[in-house]
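Input (structure):
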């Protein structure tokens, strides 16, 4: 095991004093708000991913130093399903607490403060949702998901959609607040950024590149390998096999972007999608370091990709034309998923197929229909697509190239749930301009 001394992250060379003082002020505000609080909950989104876990650990470390009298509990709803993520949680967050939604109201009341990481008060993907907890009382929200059109804000509300990972924002806090981090936390933060940005290959800002390259020297490679290359259960391969057997390819002239069909306010939105988005297939991870390296060597191409801009400013994209491109749409159905994040993992895998412009992966987990959508074009508005489909029967959201959602299917027989899933397919195809295409099963196609 490599032994590395704890170190304070060095801020970027071009980090202005103005920026420094505004970050200092945010940290200061958090510390002051915790002044009279004895025990606070740092709450991750449901089914936390590496970015959420790393961000929670980083906030815990910051509070340990700057609010030492406040007891901190790290908590989340849902399950940590994916093998890499549960391995990471076991190694770096063994003290994390699972809070089931049904007992959330009582459990939350045991804390005198709540802070959110990798999610925000208005989102439906954390356990405060569906409780009476006054969400305007949330002490801080540190997140990078596109903000909702809502007045509901945390007291310290740091939501930056242009940044690739919440862990990156936490690195900035740690650096400004002079918090030394050990190799384990450095590894967690590095992996959080790596998995959320696909190794800086998409949705990446200058700050992500700074954090990633600074952390790179501090990580414990053995720990990273244990997480990233964890052995997978047989059920994993069975699920992948089932998914590929139930994948159909539609070849059409597909619209590049989804057109507006509903007002934002009409759909109940959540961030289920973005949480899905952080799960990456192993195959994709294989290529990440090459990408990361090329991004670091060519910083000019990194700072403001069109994806960042399009995701960050919802208002601007009204002017975009829905251009036509030819590409394949891969639709995969997973009728019985072992865990809710399986759909996202399969979607990531299918995105690697040649000539694919859209992937729609639909699955059933318990009483929920799970949608995971990927698009090749950075202006594709995948988030809008899943919101259109989910409508009022579910919750959905996401970025231009990655999105997800859930449709609630309670009180239905398994056969009825499967029928509901099948019924979603023509709706997706219609939205994508492929309503007439019959499709070819992937495993029978040439
Ligand atoms: Mn994230």
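Output (sequence):
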């Amino acid at each position: 095991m490599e032994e590395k001394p704890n170190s304070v992250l060095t801020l970027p060379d071009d980090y202005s004093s103005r920026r420094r003082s505004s970050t200092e002020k945010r940290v200061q505000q958090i510390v002051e708000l915790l002044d009279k609080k004895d025990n606070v909950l740092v709450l991750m989104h449901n089914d936390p991913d590496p970015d959420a876990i790393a961000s929670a650990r980083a906030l815990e470390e910051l509070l340990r130093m700057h609010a030492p009298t406040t007891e901190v509990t790290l908590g989340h709803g849902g399950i940590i399903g994916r093998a890499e993520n549960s391995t990471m949680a076991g190694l770096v967050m063994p003290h994390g607490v699972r809070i089931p939604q049904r007992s959330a109201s009582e459990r939350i009341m045991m804390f005198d403060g709540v802070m959110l990481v990798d999610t925000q008060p208005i989102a439906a993907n954390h356990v405060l949702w569906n409780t009476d907890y006054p969400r305007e009382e949330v002490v801080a929200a540190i997140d990078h998901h596109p903000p909702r059109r809502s007045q509901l804000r945390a007291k310290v509300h740091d939501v930056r959609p242009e940044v690739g990972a919440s862990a990156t924002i936490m690195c900035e806090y740690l650096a400004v607040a002079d918090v030394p981090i050990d190799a384990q936390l450095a590894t967690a933060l590095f992996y959080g950024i790596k998995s959320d940005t696909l190794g800086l290959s998409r949705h990446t800002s200058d700050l992500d590149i700074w954090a990633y390259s600074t952390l790179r020297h501090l990580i414990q490679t053995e720990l990273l390998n244990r997480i990233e290359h964890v052995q997978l259960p047989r059920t994993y391969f069975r699920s992948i096999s089932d998914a590929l057997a139930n994948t159909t390819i539609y070849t059409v002239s597909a619209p590049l972007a989804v057109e507006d069909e509903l007002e934002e306010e009409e759909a109940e939105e959540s961030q289920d999608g973005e949480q899905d988005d952080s799960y990456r297939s192993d195959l994709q991870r294989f290529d990440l370091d090459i990408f990361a390296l090329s991004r670091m060597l060519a910083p000019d191409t990194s700072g403001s990709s069109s994806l960042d801009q399009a995701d960050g400013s919802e208002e601007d994209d009204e002017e975009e034309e829905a251009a036509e491109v030819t590409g394949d749409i891969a639709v995969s159905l997973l009728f019985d998923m072992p865990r809710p994040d399986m759909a996202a993992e399969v979607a990531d895998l299918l995105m690697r197929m040649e000539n694919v412009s859209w992937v729609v992966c639909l699955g059933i987990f318990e009483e929920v229909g799970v949608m995971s959508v990927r698009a090749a074009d950075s202006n594709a508005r995948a988030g809008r697509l899943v919101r259109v489909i989910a409508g009022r029967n579910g919750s959905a959201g996401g970025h231009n190239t990655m999105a997800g959602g859930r449709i609630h299917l309670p009180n239905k027989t398994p056969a009825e749930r499967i029928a509901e899933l099948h019924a979603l397919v023509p709706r997706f195809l219609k939205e994508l301009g492929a309503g007439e295409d019959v499709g070819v099963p992937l495993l029978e196609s040439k």
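Notes: Confidence is low (pLDDT under 50) at residues 261-323. Residues 51, 118, 144, 165-166, 196, 278 surround manganese (II) ion (CB under 6 Å).
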